[in-house]
Each structure stands twice: as structure tokens, then as C-alpha cells.
Amino acid sequence: MTQTVSLEAPPSHPFHRERELVTISRWLITMRWLAGAGVLLATWFARSVLDLDLQFTALFLVGVGIIAYNCALWRWLRSTESMEGDRIRRLHTISHIQVGLDWVAMALLIRFSGGIESPVIFFFIFHILIASLVFERRIAAIYAILALTIVAGISILEKSGLIQHHHVVGFFTGESFDNTAFVIGVIGIYAITSLVTFYLTSSIAERLHQREDQLSTLYLGAQTVSSTLDLQVVLDRLVHATAEALNVSAASIDLIDSTGTRVDIAAAYGFSQEYLNKGPLFLDQSQVLARVLRTGQSLILQGDLDRSLFQYPGELEREGIRSLLYVPLVSKNRSLGMVGVHSRQANRFSQDDAEFLSAIASQGAVAIDNAMSFQALKKLDHDKSQFVRTVTHELRSPVTGAQSLLRNIIKGYAGGLSDRQRDIMGRLDRRLNKLEALINDLLDLAAGRSDMSVEEPEPMSLLRSLDHVISVFQEQAEAKEQTLIFDPPAEDFLVYATEEGIERIFTNLIGNAIKYTPEGGTVTVKVENYDLQVGVVVCDSGIGIPADSLPKLFEEFYRAPNAKAFETGTGLGLVIVKELVESFSGRISVTSKEGKGTTFTVHLPLVTGINQRMDIAENSQEVLS
Ligand code: ATP
Ligand code: MG
After folding, report:
1. Residue 602: beta bridge partners?
2. pLDDT digits (tens, 9 = 90+) for 432-451
3. Fewer CB within 10 Å, N side or C side of the chain?
4. Ligand 1 centre from 428 Cα, in Å?
């Protein structure tokens, strides 16, 4: 059962990242329209209304520049949004260009509105806040330091006289920029404010992103894990989702055995083959296992690992594992085993990780439990069919033996019989025939259910098999003075099936039609082509099926009341038919009117149809991937 998964790690939630980048870019662009207009308005207001002496042209041009580059960014963002494929890179580029241009605009605004004296320098704080939200910490730190360098650089250059100082006359005295204490004080306060802003915002953003990643991993994990009932697939997906969610190098799922004393690795990710071959863990030899399973609590082991806690400490050391986190898998108060994540980093796991892994494990445990129950049910069904097969098989030989002995007696090989004796023997023979039919039906049913039918479906001629069945029934129909019509179409149809299966389906359906049609009636068999499918229609003018019996027709041993009064039977024929039709990817339908007749239609996919459908499925998979 041990298996190492080598799935590629999926990209980390590109969808919400992309959505977030688009939202923030849109929002920045909206804000920038206001900022550009604000610069133009403030410049005009300061000069015309407040009558301040300032660098009107330069500031006005900065305002126009902001609006112009915002216009270009807006168009670029729109074209990116409608672009196909991977947009993340382009959205990142747009974000960097936005921040870069804003930094230049800010530098010019500060430069022309008073340098260190300018109140505009604190507008940089907003920008640092936004950069810390949008970019990862390292990049946001670079932008924050760049902003500080711009402010400090302009002040130092102005103070040293290397560039000219422009100040807003009437707003400041115009001397502070030359005052060393003032310059150092403002730069100091500015540095602290901007760095604290960066630190707090990026810490909060990082934590939020982490939570967001965890939530979507949990959601995606739950979806993939519960979308199948195949136990091994559930385990593989779960172990992979766990490693991915906690961003660790190795993860494993250990399932408890039926004795409850040992666990085996059922799925693993990222371990060496030697580690996987280490053998099972026993409750009385592994304290780690005992603690997790007995307490039902998560367990973090890191730092100096105590070798005595482990059953295989050597293997652990060889793998370089320095931190371990185990969480029990519990479903419906039953312990199924545990899920573990391992890291080569020391002190890698926190209580938060344990809680997160517990959330994954509780979802996973339900999926594992469901898959296990399904597997157990399948096994039970298989065992039941096997049992029926064995019993019926054993019953058949004495019954057929008794039949042949009886026929010898009836034929008089064992001496002459009185009329009364012949009559009794005849009735006995008919009873034995029914018993044989029942045994054969049960055998057919068990064969279908226990996957014992060795013959694999393959492309075969439908008409040839139908012809064969019709010819077998012709005599029986004539004996009942019925008309059995089969008007075969000019072209043959290829279906994926087995000859034996097709013959069994139509032997049952045509047999029923003849059986449940009174003398003188008609049974018609037609073949119709429905594009990718073929339909074989078996229609009779017989006793029909009561409306309330129709839904129960395909249940084992069900027989409609009018049929019971009319003929004997076991009620297994249609069950076998349905299973066979479905095993050939087809379906069966029935319409009937009591007293008028019944029509059964078997739809089977044509071989070309199957191929076409497979092409479509492959193509759509390509599109999806
Ligand atoms: P056997 O297992 O021996 O075939 P059966 O014919 O009774 O017994 P099915 O073939 O499974 O069992 O059919 C189930 C029931 O469906 C029948 O008992 C009958 O009530 C109804 N039925 C099936 N085919 C027809 C038909 N052509 N006309 C009327 N009733 C039908
Ligand atoms: Mg029947």
C-alpha cells in the first residue's frame, strides 16, 4: 500500500493573487486621478487665491504628468485584464511601474514644493503603506528605503547647495532647509514613521496572505480529497495537499491496522525509499505514536529530538528531519491513524501550524472514512456474489444430474410407467427445469457482479448476434402462433461488447416478449441508428406492465402481478440485462401499457461514437489543463 507521490506542486493560488493585483491596481489608478487633479488644483489655489509664490510651472507639469501616466497605466491594465493566459507577471510589472512612477512624481513634488520643508513628504507614507500591501516584504522594504533616500537626498543636496532650494514663499520662511537640527529632526521623524509603517503593514499583510493561502489550500484540498471514493487516491491527494499547505519537504499518512496495535505508511510525500521501507510503527514501541493516538491531540517535536520517543530514530536522523508535527486522524470518534509533516529546519512548527493541520486532518479523515466504507462495501458485495456463485454452482450438478435421470425414466429406459407416474414425473421435470433456470440466472448475476467475466468487450457485429438470437426464438414463437418480425437494416453496427453478453441481453428481452404475449400476438425487433448510438427495440403486443410496476422492474426478484398470474419466472432476467447493458456503457428504457404491449429499447454506443467521445474528452482535458 505504501506509495510515494511525485505530483508537481501546484502554483500557490494564482487566482486570488491575480484578483488582488487587479483590484489594487484599479484602486491605485482611481486614487491617482484624484492625486493628479489635487496637485493641479492645489497649485492653482495656492497661487491664485492664497497668492503664494511657488514653482507654478514645475508643479503644474508634475500634475499633468501624473494624469498622463495614469492614463497610460489605465489603458495598459485594461488590455491586460482582457488578455488570455498568465497575467500575473504582467500585473506585477504594472504594479512596479506604477510605484516607480509615483516615486518619481513624489520626488519632483517634494523638490518643487520646499524639499525638507514640504508637507508633501508625508504623502510618501501612503505610498509605503500601499507598497507593503502589494509586494512581498523584501521588495516593500526596498521601496521604503528608496523613499527615505529620496527625501534625505533632496534635503542634503539642498543643504549643501548642490541643488537650488525652492520654497513656497509665504508658507515657510525658507531658512529651515539650511538648519541642520531641523533637517536631522525631520529626516529622523520621517524615517521612523515610514519604517514603522512599512514594518506594521507588511507584517499584517504577510499574515493575512498566509491565512488566505491556508484557507484556499484547505478549500481546494477538501474539494479534491472528497471528489473520489478511491482510497489510495484520497490518501495521495491528502498527503500532497498537506505538504503543500504547510510548505514542508515531507508528509505522510499512517493508517492503523485492524488489531489497533500498529500503523503502516499508507501514503507519503518527499521521503527517501529507505525511510519508507523502515517498517510499521507499533503502539508499544513508538511513544510518539502512542501519544498521538491515545491523547487524540496534535504533537510537535523539534529542537533536540529525544531518540527514545521514536521507534526508528536512526532513519529519522538519516533523513535529516529536525522538526515533526503529528495530528490524529479521527472520524466519527474512531481513530484511523495519523498524519505527519516533517521538516529539515529546526523549530519549524508553531501551534498555528498544528491547528491548521488539524483542520486538514479532520476533513481528510472523513474522506478516508468514506473511501474505506466504500471499499468495505465493495468487498462485501464481491464476497456475497462469490458466495452465490459457489452455492449455485454446487447446486447445479445435482439438479442437472436429477434432470437427466428423470428424462431417462420418462423415456421408459427404466421400465414402463403408468399414466399417473408419467404425469408426476413430467411435473417433477418441469419443476427441475425452473430450478435450473433460477440457478442459471443466479450464476449469471453473480458472474456479472464479481468481475469474473473474463471476456473483455471489443468491437463486434450487433446484427450477427441479433440474427442468432432471433433464429433460436423463431420456433418458440411459432409454437405460440406468434409472429416474430426482425427486419434487419442494410448496414451493420459495431458496438463495444461481448457476443455472449449481447446474446444474453436479447435472449432475455425477446424471451420475455414471447413469454408475456398471448398466442397469436406479435413481437417485433427493430434496429435504429441515433447518431453516436444504436437502439435495439423489442416491442410486443402482450399483457403489458402496470404503471406502478414500471419503476420496480429492474429490482431483483420483482415480478409484476399480471405477469405472476400469466407465467412463471424468477424476476432476475431484467436485472442481468440492465447490468450487462451498463457494462457496455449503454442504457435500457421501457414503455408499456397494460393490456396493450411493451417496448424495451437498448441504447448502445457505436464504436465510432466511443472514439469520437474519447477525442472530445481528451480535448476538453487539454483545455482545462
Ligand atoms: P426470469 O428471471 O425467468 O426472466 P421474469 O421474466 O419474471 O423471470 P424478468 O425477465 O426480470 O423476470 O422480468 C421482470 C418482470 O418484468 C416480469 O415478471 C414482468 O412482470 C415484467 N416484464 C418483463 N418483460 C415483459 C414484457 N415483455 N411484457 C410484460 N411484462 C414484462
Ligand atoms: Mg424474463
Report:
1. 536, 588
2. 988 888 888 888 777 666 55
3. C
4. 24
Is residue 504 lining ligand 1, measured as CB closer than 6 Å?
no
CA distance 166 to 114: 5
> Rounded CA gap, 506 and 536, in Å?
9
Query: Model confidence over 160-169: pLDDT tens digits?
Result: 888 888 777 6
**Distance from the alpha carbon of residue 550 to the mean position of ligand 2, in angstroms:** 14
Task: Tell me the whole-structure pTM to 2 decimals.
Answer: 0.52
Query: Which pairing describes strands 281-282 and 483-486: parallel, antiparallel, or unpaired?
Result: unpaired
- Name the closest ligand to CA 579: 1
Protein residue whose Cα sits closest to atom 3 of ligand 1: 569
Determine whether the shortest distance from the Cβ of 588 to ligand 1 is under 6 A: no
Beta carbons within 10 angstroms of residue 477's beta carbon:
20
- Residue 516 Cβ contacting ligand 1 at under 6 Å: yes
Other beta carbons less than 10 A from residue 378's beta carbon: 11
* Closest C-alpha residue for ligand 1 atom 27: 513
DSSP string, 350-415: -HHHHHHHHHHHHHHHHHHHHHHHHHHHHHHHHHHHHHHHHHHHHHHHHHHHHHHHHHHHHTTTTS
Contact 140, 202 (CB under 8 A): yes
